[in-house]
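Example 353.
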Amino acid sequence: MSKQEVILSEDLAGSLKQAIDRCPHDRLFILTDEHTSRLCMPRLREIGCLSDMNEIVIGAGDIHKTLDTLASVWKRLSDSGATRHSLLLNLGGGMITDLGGFAAATFKRGFPYINIPTTLLAMVDASVGGKTGINFNGLKNEIGVFAPASAVLIDTCFLRSLDRRNLVSGYAEMLKHGLISTESHWAELLRFDTEQVDYDGLRELVGRSVQVKEDIVGQDPFEHGIRKALNLGHTVGHAFESLALEKNRPVLHGYAVAWGMVCELYLSHIMTGFPAGKMRQTVQFIKENYSAFYLDCKQYETLYGLMLHDKKNTAGIINFTLLEDIGRICINRTAGKETIFEMFDFYRECMGL
Ligand code: GLY
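Predicted structure in complex with glycine:
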């Protein structure tokens, strides 16, 4: 997979002009959703060279990350004469960068695209690393391809209009990057005040977070090995997310990952010796910033069943990414049902449930 260029930009207009110049094209398209079209698009309209681009607006939120929406994007591209030499800009959160990337990667067997993420989650995770796709048959990101963007332009100014819940949600992926990288990065993330946000400090942390992800994706773009480090917190997190959805009380992805990290740090502690003190410090930060996903022992079996069906598994074995310490990653670990139930007991106890 070719390496994508990720730019932490202080001058979005200039960076975008340069990125577009490097992708000669016949027609220019931009994919937005109903929110980013209203809130973020005005900043791009000011950029002269974009005046004749064709805007495709879709519904906002994960419920629109569907085959129907994708087909509507393909149809607009087709009706507007898009070719293999066209260029698509994806302006939005992870849903837009995932679906838009997939649309571009598949239309006429693929044409280039540029991501301009507008949420913290998309900046530090979804828009970087070439994973694209849609939800299908009730399963998240079930259909998709690896197809890196030609460029990812990150302008953290967009974060100033993000609500706290979405900010904190994206921050969970940053915390994960801290846990899988270095002790100093992790410690700095725990010191950050998510209520009185210092946006300059956040920008710096975003840059470091993206670097962690890029380094890992560069080593293993197709997730055969070390890229699984990025799954820390996600085996349990996806089960929490699915359970919440089944109960018609959807939760933001990053919240589920944060609660998943509480569980998986416990597993790391008992199975691979992750230090108790660092586990407690991380859990305390999560407790203070993410409240708790309510859980009682009647839900353990359901969660266990959901984890068995996670697409990261093979042959009915639940696959975890664990840590021996900060930055010391153990992939392809498995745990038995009894240990997993004990992990849920720990979660309930330390989250005060
Ligand atoms: N979101 C995890 C990855 O890109 O591999």
